[in-house]
Hints:
Blueprint: H1 12-19, H2 32-35, E1 43-48, E2 53-55, E3 63-64, H3 70-80, H4 85-88, H5 116-125, H6 131-146, E4 151-152, H7 154-163, H8 165-177, H9 184-195, E5 197-199, H10 201-212, H11 227-240, H12 246-252, E6 257-259, E7 264-269, E8 273-278, H13 289-302
Antiparallel strand pairs: 1-2, 1-8, 3-5, 4-5, 6-7, 7-8
Helix pairs in contact: 3-5, 3-11, 5-8, 5-9, 6-9, 6-10, 7-9, 8-9
Bound molecules: glutamine.
Amino acid sequence: MSPATDPRTYDLDAVRRRVLPERGGAVDDSIPQLADADPELCGLALVLADGSTHASTQSDVPFSVQSAVKPFLFALALLDTGGQALDRIGIEPTGEAFDAIKLETSTGRPPNPMVNAGALLTAALVDGGDTDARTDRILRGLSAFAGRDLEIDEGVARSEHLCGDRNHALAHLMRAEGTLTVSADDAVAVYARACAVLVDARTLAVMAATLAFGGTNPVTGDVVVPPDVARDVVSVMATCGVYDGSGRWMRSVGVPAKSSVSGAIALSAPGVLGAAVVSPPLDEQGTSVRGRLLAEHLSDDLDLHVFGRRAGSAADLPAG
Ligand code: GLN
């Protein structure tokens, strides 16, 4: 194995060029806006402990965050409920698709916060008296993770709300089980708007870095969530973040991550860096094909695998 590369001098455009010839996967077509995504979009960014951002070509192209928002919704729900969200949602991997119509058999709870059932509930557990107030609180919370004011693509939010039949079904099922206390339609509305928040690879990398560094945004220095919340979120990303591909992901990439149908993947390497990769064509598990390859290169080149660290690696670099 070659020694780890210093992330400060890592050539992100070179690694991007390595994956561009890959033509596998298909762009999500669940809503028109996602179906229209450019399959050639490919970008990546890293954020280090000192807050420095390193980014490739196309790392500032906006896309809707989709399921990559789920770790941050979980964090906000943990924060706003004082940890009680953990009583309302499981934390076990499902081995099933992200939108499986399934709750825990004995409790009626969603299996984990990284699948749709769980994220519908975490979004509903965030503080706010009505959908507008809750959406506003989520947007402010996500903006603190990002270190800049984020916006919602209202067209995407409308499509998500209209076309999200499985999400409506899950919300009704959780109402029937007594798990969800707001109305099913309100829960879907808030979740749809959270999925429709616009980010780019740079921004998502800052958000992932905030989780990687114990809840403190390394760019702004703001404590967004306390360290125990960040630790809980990153733990669940490690076991459930790539749905029924989570085991394969941990073996080959070894970095807690969250995939999404927009083709973005947020990666939080604890104490080392935050990263984001984006490329819309997806594999059967809804993971970006080029995104996975980029993540494998990053993990290997920068020695990020949490269970296979080599000596003299990125984690040993001074923070400042
Ligand atoms: N908008 C999607 C949904 O809830 C997000 C899913 C995803 O990115 N995997 O159906």
